[in-house]
Amino acid sequence: MKYKFISDSHLHSINSFDGKDSVIMIAERACQLNLYSITITDHCECNEYEEQNVRKDIEGSVIDTAKARAMYLDKLRIYTGIELGQPTQNEKAAQEALSLGEYDFVLGSLHNIRGEQDFYFIEYTPENTTDLLDRYFREMSDLAKTDYYDSLAHLTYPLRYLAGKTEIPFDRRRYDDAIDEILSELVRRDKALEVNTSGLRQLIGKTLPDEEIIRRFRELGGKYVTLGSDAHRWGDVGAGIEEGLALLQKCGFTHFTVFEKRQPRLLPI
Fold this sequence. Notes:
By secondary structure, the protein is an alpha/beta fold. It has helices spanning 23-32, 54-71, 91-98, 129-144, 157-165, 176-188, 211-219, 241-250, and strands at residues 7-11, 37-45, 77-85, 105-109, 151-152, 192-196, 225-228, 255-260, 263-268.
């Protein structure tokens, strides 16, 4: 491996509704790849917290991660995390979820805006796309202004599906000010920006967010950047992380971040 420290800080196990494999299988794969650390960040969709019995899955994730940490103590650093989806849509659920474990790391994410399905399921049209994206970035700005999270996940999440499902033209310049507002809020609050590498294995073909936004984060004073494959099966553990590290170097970063007990640890690239 080119890099001494390779860490995957966005991983889903069978304790996520869309996860395929156990935490043990994920950890075993990470060991095979000689990763430095992993963080299990199973889903907590706050807007569905009561209806889907999300609490049970979170508790299972915390328990399974602790078991894996004990098993791989001398081989791999395994951190307890959670992906807190839509926390501003149900703040009571977000607060309860954060009380269910001693987390090392909390990802803040937005998979669906208020009153809409996950962007994965939306049928995009020239008529609705601009409105959906306007609302997405406004709600992401609301999330960025909270203290629920340590790192803001896959900032350009809708584009992953917009690129894969449609040929609708997209004007990124329209959202420059909104994105700057979000990035500036991360800097002001000493929060991290996630570089999500899942897009590298999807039709969009780039990280979420992309190089331009990562560069802008650094220009605005951004210090903390986390890397995550967003793997939902053992075969994608660590996927794209080395490419992500190379991209960070290209954008002028000399370190990336992992979180331990909710505190950032800078590791050299």
